[in-house]
Design brief:
The structure holds two protein chains of two kinds.
Chain A (H helix, E strand, L loop, with lengths): L3 E2 L4 E5 L4 E7 L6 E7 L6 E7 L4 E4 L2 E6 L4 E6 L8 E8 L9 E2 L3 E6 L1
Chain B lengths: L4 E3 L2 E4 L5 E6 L6 E8 L3 E9 L2 E4 L8 E7 L2 E6 L8 E9 L2 E7 L3 E5 L1
Parallel strand pairs in B: 2-11
Antiparallel strand pairs in B: 1-3, 3-8, 4-5, 4-9, 5-6, 7-8, 9-10, 9-11
Classes of the chains: A mainly beta, B mainly beta.
Amino acid sequence: DQQVKQNSPSLSVQEGRISILNCDYTNSMFDYFLWYKKYPAEGPTFLISISSIKDKNEDGRFTVFLNKSAKHLSLHIVPSQPGDSAVYFCAAGVYGGATNKLIFGTGTLLAVQP
Amino acid sequence: DAGVIQSPRHEVTEMGQEVTLRCKPISGHNSLFWYRQTMMRGLELLIYFNNNVPIDDSGMPEDRFSAKMPNASFSTLKIQPSEPRDSAVYFCASRGPPLRDTQYFGPGTRLTVL
C-alpha cells in the first residue's frame, strides 16, 4: 500500500517556465513533508521541507505548497533551469516522532528543455 | 565535512555469492537507514537503526538480507545468497544536524547480480 504517491513518472518543461510536481499521501498522521532531488549516479539530496503548521514554504526558486484537507503537496520551480533536470522524490513522516521513518514516493523525472 | 560514505560504489557478483555493502554515517548522527531503489517501488526502506539498535526491519525482503551496526560510525548490509532480483541501487542515509528530521543520503551502491 503506497502511502505516498507521485502519479506522474515524468514531466517535461521549457526553460524559464514553471515546473509543478505533485504528491499525494494517505496517512493523516504525517505532519512533515520533504522533497529530495536526485541526479543520476548520486544519492538523493534534500531540497526543501514543510511542516503541517504551514501551507507554504519558499526557498529561492523552490516553493512547496501543502493542502492538508486534500492530503496533497506540490513543488513549484520558477523559473525552471536545465540544471533542475533530475528525479524528484517527495517524502512524508511524523516530525519528532518516536519512529523517524520517512515514506518516499516513486519519484518524478523532470526534464527541463533549453 | 564528509557526507555519508558508502562502499563499494559498484558491485557485480554471481548468483549465490555473498555481498556486503558498507556505510559510514555522518559524524554525530544517531539514526541510520538502508534503502533500495528500484523502478517499480522507488525508494524502499529496508531497515533503520537508532543509536546502533535496529528499530524496524519490516522492509527487509527475506532472511537472505541482514544488517548490522556494530558502532556509531559503521553499518553493513549483507545479502547471502544473492539472487538476480536483488540487483538495484542500495542507499544508506543518516539523520541528524543541521536539520534534525532530515535524512542525508550517501552516493549509493549499484549492485548487479548475474
